[in-house]
Amino acid sequence: MIEVRNLTKVYQMGDERVAALDGVSLSIARGEHIAVIGPSGSGKSTLMNILGGLDRPDGGAYLFDGEDVSGFDDDELAHFRNQRIGFCFQSFQLLPRLTALQNVELPMIYGGWPPAQRRARAAEMLERVGLASRMGHRPTQMSGGQQQRVAIARALANSPDLLLADEPTGALDTHTTQEVLALFEELNRDGLTLVIVTHESEVADHAKRRIAFRDGQVVADDRSLAPA
Ligand code: ADP
Ligand code: ADP
After folding, report:
1. Counting C-beta atoms within 10 Å of the first and last residue's C-beta, which end of the chain has fewer, N or C?
2. From the CB of 49, is ligand 1 less than 6 Å away?
3. What's the start-to-end Cα distance of the chain, in Å?
4. Ligand 1 within 6 A of 170 CB?
């Protein structure tokens, strides 16, 4: 599904040039469950932003189902992001004044769905993540684990090919982390491709493949738990 070759990204900070990505190459197949690990500042978020079409590389190639994403213009990139990618973040990024249902509807507004269908699909996604009884709640009326499940439901709304999660359990306690990990595993079993940035060994251990970054480079790529 994904082929990344010799990807580079350089940030200019005053006089200093920081290579956030320094020649990263990797392939991701449909249905994989990958953890991206490595110290702070090693380039993990930069890679996720490029994979998700939130940012562009300075060099190298990014192919998604054979299409050259690095050649997309802004509109094509926005469309790619909305239709092919689901995002979830440590801080959930839900809109506080909207209900769970309305939050899940958001990506479908961009997608141009008729309101009734949008609402039905949002309800279906909230059922999928076990929040059928919380559709009318606002984020502040929900626990962290519930909010992250709303964010996951939102990420799934447009049936993405790839779910990108940046420290999705970073703000959760042990119990709710387990809940979210169980949900990820279930989604992966149903065929969703997952790439999860994490500092937590518990989260990394759940993945079938671990890719380790250091100084903008891949230093380990461990498929030892990949199914035969
Ligand atoms: P990680 O996610 O592994 O913590 P990042 O991808 O966020 O790493 O950062 C990689 C490197 O790029 C770091 O040195 C960081 O300071 C730098 N960097 C990231 N984003 C920016 C930015 N917007 N401007 C300048 N430097 C940045
Ligand atoms: P913008 O163009 O300002 O990024 P969008 O209309 O694309 O806004 O998205 C509205 C909200 O839905 C944003 O909070 C965004 O993060 C979220 N969103 C958009 N597309 C997706 C998606 N494919 N998966 C998850 N969330 C998404």
Report:
1. C
2. no
3. 19
4. no
Helices (H), 71-158: 74-84, 100-110, 115-128, 144-156
Whether the CB-CB separation of 223 and 209 falls below 8 Å is answered with yes
Reported as a single tens digit per residue, the pLDDT across 71-126 is 999 999 999 999 999 999 999 999 999 999 999 999 999 878 899 999 999 999 99
In this prediction the ipTM stands at: 0.67
Is pLDDT of 228 > 50? Answer: no
Q: Can you give the pLDDT at residue 225?
A: 52
Q: Is residue 90 in contact with ligand 1, taking CB distance under 6 Å?
A: no
DSSP code string of 11-64? EEETTEEEEEEEEEEEEE-TT-EEEEE--TTSSHHHHHHHHTTSS--SEEEEEE
Nearest CA to ligand 1 atom 22: 11
**What would the mean pLDDT of 208-227 be, rounded to a whole number?**
86
The gap from C-alpha 200 to its chain's centroid, in whole angstroms, comes to 16
Q: How much of the chain is helix, strand and coil, in % rounded to 5?
A: 40, 30, 35
Rounded Cα distance between 177 and 200, Å, is 10
Three-class secondary structure of residue 163 per DSSP: strand
With 70 as the cut, is the pLDDT of residue 226 above it?
A: no
